[in-house]
Amino acid sequence: MTVAISRLLLEQIMTLARSSRDEICGLLLGRPDDITAILPADNVAPDPARHFELDPARLLSAYRDARTGGPQVVGHFHSHPSGRPVPSATDAACAVPDGRLWLIVTGETARLWIAGPGEGGATAFVEAALDVR
Ligand SMILES: [Zn+2]
Predict the structure, then answer these.
(1) Phi/psi at 7 (5° precision)
(2) DSSP states of 92-105 as a string?
(3) Where are the beta strands (DSSP E) in 20-122?
(4) Which pLDDT belongs to residue 107?
(5) pLDDT tens digit string along 11-64?
(6) Contact status, residue 73 vs residue 44, Cβ threshold 8 Å
(7) Which SS3 state, helix, strand or coil, does residue 30 take?
(8) Which class does domain 2-132 fall in?
(9) What is the number of alpha carbons within 13 Å of residue 6 lying toward its C-beta?
(10) DSSP code of 54?
């Protein structure tokens, strides 16, 4: 699977990642194969340097907007400030196998993953190609 994103949006996310020692996070909006907007959200995790938790108020309002004709929520992004842009054990434990996009960035690089069903009800991440335009 290939998912399109503009260079501008990707650069906005990586700039956010570079600006913080904590994990940054937000929502990806658009279509499953075309990210057309991002919505940065506060990371409300108790330990934001190592985990992320999207501000629930932001999530609720984005889903409400989507239901009333706004852009669809197709996934989210977060950063790994000192790691590689691959899903961590914590990411896998928190993920739901719902087919949503997981964009993981460091300050320099980004990789896209899709959360799908794994063995025994677990979540398996499959990497998707990013078409940066
Ligand atoms: Zn992570």
Answers:
(1) -60, -35
(2) HHH---S--EEEEE
(3) 25-31, 34-41, 72-79, 101-105, 110-117
(4) 86
(5) 999 999 999 999 999 999 999 999 999 999 999 999 999 999 999 999 999 999
(6) no
(7) strand
(8) alpha beta
(9) 8
(10) B
Q: How far is the CA of 68 from the centre of ligand 1 (A)?
A: 30
Query: Using one digit for the tens of pLDDT, what is the confidence trace for 83-124?
Result: 899 999 999 999 999 999 999 999 899 999 999 998 888 899
Domain positions in the chain: 2-132
Q: Indicate the pTM of the whole model.
A: 0.96
Lookup: tokens for 108: 């320099």
Q: How far is the CA of 87 from the centre of ligand 1 (A)?
A: 5
113 within 8 A of 87, measured Cβ to Cβ: yes
- CA separation for the pair 59, 73 (Å, rounded): 9
Residue pointed to by tokens 């889903």: 63
Ligand 1 ion: nearby residues, β-carbon < 5 Å: 88, 91
Separation of CA 88 and ligand 1 centre (Å):
5
Contact call for residues 27 and 54 (beta carbons, < 8 A): yes
CA distances in angstroms from 122 to 1, 52, 87, listed in the order given = 21, 20, 14
